[in-house]
Amino acid sequence: MKPFIYVSDYHKHTDETWTEQGLQPIEIGGAHGIFAARIPFIPSFLSDDFTRMMTNDAWGRNQLVVKRQIRFINDLANATEHAATFDLRYIANPAKDSRQKGTIDIVLLGKVFHRNIRMAQNVALDLWHKIQAHFPLEDPYNYPLEPVTDEAIFHDYFTPIPLANLKPGQLVEVRKFEDRDPYIGDTLFTGYHPHRFLPNLRFSALGSLMETLARQPKKCVVSISLKPTSLFKEELRNIEHMLNTYETMTKEGEGWIKLHRKERLDDLKDTYWSLINQRHHLFTIKVQILGEGQAPRDVVHALGSEFMDNTTEEPRLWSAESPANPIELETAINNFQFLEHKLWGDNNNDPRTRRLRFLVTAYEAAGAFRLPIPPESGYMPSLTVRDEAFVLPSEMLMPTDKEPTVELGEIIHRGTRTGIPFHLALNDFKRHALVNGATGSGKTNTCLHLLSQMWAKYRIPFLVLYPIDKPDYRLLMADPEIREDLLIFTLGDETTVPFRFNPFNIPKGILLKTHMSQLMRCFTAAFTLWDPLPAIYREGLRRVYLNHGWDLVNGKGGEGEGSIPMMSDFYDSLVEAAEELTQDYGQEAKGNIRQGTEIRIRDLLHNVGPAINVKEPVSFAEILHRPTVIELGRVGSSEDIALLMGFLLTMLTEELQSAQKAIPQELRNQQHITLVEEAHRLMPAHHTGSQLQADPRSKGGEDFSNVLAEVRGFGESIIIAEQIPASLVPGAMGNTHIKIMHWLEDATSFQLLSDTLNLNKRQQEYTRTLGVGQSVVRGRSGSPVHVQVTNYLDQFQRSDDSPIIQFTLPDGTIIKDDSDTSLKQFMADRVQLPEAVIWEQPQSNGLPPRADRIECQLYKDIVNQISKTKMQEDAPAIAAAAKAKDWPKVREICLQRLKDEGLTASIEVAKCYLIRLADQKLASRGGLTNYEVYDFIREAIANFK
User: Fold this and answer.
1) Does 301 score more than 60 pLDDT?
2) What does each C-alpha distance from 691 to 367, 394, 687, 694, 893 come to in angstroms?
3) Residues 643/652, Cβ–Cβ less than 8 Å
4) pLDDT of residue 97
5) What percentage of the chain reaches a pLDDT higher than 90?
6) What is the rounded CA–CA span in Å between residue 140 and residue 653?
7) If you average pLDDT over every residue of the chain, what do you get?
8) b vs e for 755-781, b when ≥16 Cβ sit within 10 Å of the residue's Cβ?
9) Dist CA 934 CA 930 (whole Å)
C-alpha cells in the first residue's frame, strides 16, 4: 500500500554550508513531501524462530532486537538526497478515566524536500520504499509498519498538538551536554566537548519511557528526528586541529592542570574519534517534547535517561532547553512541523563547533530512535503486544480470465495489511462454504460482500434464508448494482411483504415418493419425532396425496395426475392416521400420541398458515434468477422457522433438479447461491438421546446436511453462516470446502475450526483475539491465511449503523430507509404470489395428555372462569418449575391462581386447571417454545399429587 503523501505549498528549507566564517545556514525554495506510517502493535518476540537465536545470556533477547534496530538506523544513513529526514514519534493520549492509563501511538514520519513541487511526491514515495526495504519487518523480528493512507489520520499524527499558539514552556529539546575547559580562558573552540549520548542498549527496552507516557494527564508528543549527514571536510580538519592543540596544551601543563587535561583529553578523543570514524554515516538529531499546557518534565527526564547509561560510577549528563525568545520558538515549531533541523540557541558557540552538539552515530541515536521491546510477560504500558503468527501465503489465487473469482479482503502479513487481495474461486463455492463468527465479529458483512460481488460481477443469483428479525440484508436496497433485481420477503409477516408457497407442490419430473421423503426429512429435522410419530407422519403424507388422486408408486410432478394438497389437508390426514394407527393403544398412550402428532401442525397452521396453506405453487423460477432475501425472524417459533427453512431448501433443490433435466447439457453450468444463516436450526448436532435411540432431530439434521452433497450436480452452492459451528451436524462441516473463520466465543467451536484450518498453537492463540472484520481462511496450499474482509457495510451505513438508502422508484416514490413501509413500497408489484387459504381449527374430541374425560368435565365450568391473560402469566413459571422438577412449586402456583380468582382451591380443580393450560396456545412462554412448555406441563400433570 502507498501512504498518503502531504505536499506543502511553496516553502523554504534550511540547510547548512561551510564558509570562511564557519557553518552558515542557507535557504532553498521548494516543497516538502511528508508521509507517515503506524507501528500498530509491538511483537512479543516469543516465536520459536526467535528463541532459537537467543544465547544463554540473560539479556540476549534485548541485544538481538536492538542490533537489528541499529542496523535499520545505519541503513537510513544512506538516504542523503533531497534532505531526507526521519521522525519517530510517541504520541501519548490521556485516558478519560484518571484511574486508567492512556494509549500511546507510535508513528514513523518521512520527509523529503524538492525544488519542484510536482516532484516532491514522487521523491517522497521513493523514500517510503527505502524505509520498507530496511525496516525490521522480516522474521523473526516482525515489527509491523502500516502506511497511513487517510489524509485526516495523517494530520492527526503530523500535528498532534495545535501549534498556532504554542508557548515556549510547551516545547523542550533534549540535547547533548556541552562544556569547555574552564582553565583555558574565553576561547570557544579549543577544548569544546559535546558529551556523547551513551545509552545502555543491553538493558533498556524503553519500558520506563512508556510507563511515564502512559501516565500523562494531558496529550504530549515525543519526537526523535534524524537527518543523515556527513562531517564537512572543514569540520574534520577543525576537530583534528583542536585535538592536536589540546594534546599539546596537556603535555605542556604542570601538576594538577596536567592531570585534569589528560583525563579530559581522553574523553575528547572518545567523543570525536567516533564521529571521525563514522564521518560518512552520521545524523543530525533533534529530540523534542511537546505538551498541552506544558511540556511534561517527567517525560523529558525519562527520555533523557534513555540516552545515558547512568548505571556507572560516573553518571552522565544531558541537557534540556526551551526557546528563549519568539524567534527561537518559531524556529522550533517549524522544525517540528516540517521535520527541519535548523539550529537555534547556542548563540555563543564558535561557528566552527556549533553543529557538533547535534551530530550522533547510529548507536547514539538508538538511545531513543528505536521501538520498545516487551518483556516475556507481554506487558508494555499502553501498547498492544501481539504474537502475529500468520504470513503471506506462498501460493495465492489471482483473478484471471480463465478462473473467475470474488475478492474476500486484504491479506494481513505479520499483523500488517499488505494491500494484496485474497481471492476465492467461484468453482470452489460449488463445494460449498462455511462462514463462522460470534455476534458482532463481521460474519454478516462477509456474506453481504461475497453475495454482492457474485451478482454484480457474474450475475449469479442468490437466495438468503435469514431466520432473525433484523433488517441486515435490507441494506442490499442501497446497493445500486443489486437493487433493480432484488426481492425481499417477510415470511410470517402478512402486513409487509408476505411470502407464500405450498411445500406439497411437486416440480415437474420429480417423483412423488422422493418428494415425500424430502418432506419427511424436513419434519424430522425440525421436530422431535419419537417413535411412533415418524410412522404416523409418513402415513399422513401417503394419505393426503392418495386422497388427492396421486399414484404413490409412480407419480411424478407435472404429469397432471392429481391436485396439490395443502397443509390443512395434511393436518386432516394426520389426525386420521393417528386415530387409526393407535386403535390398539391404551387410553393414556393413545392420548399422548395423538396430541403429540397433531399439535405441531395445528400450531404451525395457527402461526404461519397464510404463508404455507395455499393452493397454487409459487413461481420459483423467477426467484431462482434474481437476488432474493427471505426473512423468517417474524415467524417466532424456532421449530416453525426450522421447518420452513427445510421446506424452502427442499423446494429449491427440487426446482433446480427439475430445471436441470429440462435444459441441454452444455447449459447446465449455471450457478446459484443459497445462504443459510443460523443453520443449526435445521442441522443440529446430537445433544440428546440414549444408547438405544438417537435424538431424532439430530438424525434429521444429518440427513439434511446430505443436501450439500446432493445439490452440487445442479449448479447449486450453499453458504452456511453460523455463530456456533459445533452446534451443526458433522456433515455440515465435512461437506463444505471453503471455511471462513471470524472471532469465535464458543470454545468447542473454536477448537473444531482450528483443527480444520490447520492452525498451530501460536495461530490459535492469536485467532482468539481476531478483530471485527478479520478472518482466517484456508489458502489454496492448505495453509491458513489472515484476511481483513472488505467492509461492505460501511459503504451504505453511517457511523451509528443506520443505513444510507436514498433512491427513487419508477413511480416517483422516494425510498429513504429500510423500514417495513419502505420495503413494502420497494417490493410493490415485483412478484405475484398465490392467495392464502384461511384455516379454522376443527372441533376436536381429543383429550389433553393424561387427562381423564369425566374428571375434567366435573370442574370444567370452574377452570373456564380463568382468563387466558391469567394463564399466560402462569405458564412460564409453571414450565420453569416443571423443568426443575419442583412439583410442589407447580401445585402452589395452580392453587394460588384458584385462590386469587376466588374459586375452589382443591387438588382436583388445580389439576384440571393445569390440564387446560397445557392445551392452550399461549403467547407468553418465558422464552421457551410451545413444545418445551407442553412437555414440561405434561410431566407436571404426571407428577401432580
Assistant:
1) yes
2) 70, 48, 13, 7, 36
3) no
4) 82
5) 48
6) 51
7) 85
8) ebbebeebbbebbeebeebbbbbbbee
9) 6
At 132, list the grid cell: 520498507
Peptide bond into 144 cis (omega under 30): no
Phi, psi of 98 (to 5 degrees): -65, -15
Quote the cell numbers at residue 838: 384461511
Contact 540, 529 (CB under 8 A): no
Q: Where are the domains of the chain?
A: 6-384, 422-826, 853-942
Does a cis peptide bond (omega within 30 degrees of 0) precede residue 140? Answer: yes
The CA-based angle 134-136-137, given to 5 degrees, is 105
pTM recorded for the entire structure: 0.74
Q: Which bin fits 689, alpha (ψ -120 to 50), beta or left (φ > 0)?
A: left
CA–CA distance, 655 with 387 (Å, rounded to integer):
50
Compute the average pLDDT of residues 843-858: 44
Question: Which residue's entry shows cell 382468563?
Answer: 867
Cell of 458: 457474474
- Sequence letter at residue 863: V
Strand 628-631 relative to strand 487-490, pairing: parallel
Say how far apart CA 611 and CA 857 lie, in whole Å: 36
The model's pLDDT over 735-744, given as tens digits with 9 standing for 90+, comes to 889 999 999 9
To 5 degrees, how large is the angle CA 257–CA 197–CA 363?
130
Residues 6+ apart with CB under 8 A from 918: 848, 849, 934, 937, 938, 941
Task: Find out whether 910 and 859 touch, Cβ atoms under 8 Å.
Answer: no
Sign of the C-alpha dihedral computed for residues 912, 915, 920 and 925 taken in this order: positive
pLDDT digits (tens, 9 = 90+) for 457-476: 999 999 999 999 999 999 99
Please tell me the class of the 422-826 domain. alpha beta
Residue 784 sits at φ, ψ, to 5 deg, of: -70, 145
Contact 212, 276 (CB under 8 A): no
Cα separation of 561 and 548, whole Å? 9
CA dist., res. 188 & res. 181, Å (int) = 9
| pLDDT of 428 over the 60 cut | yes
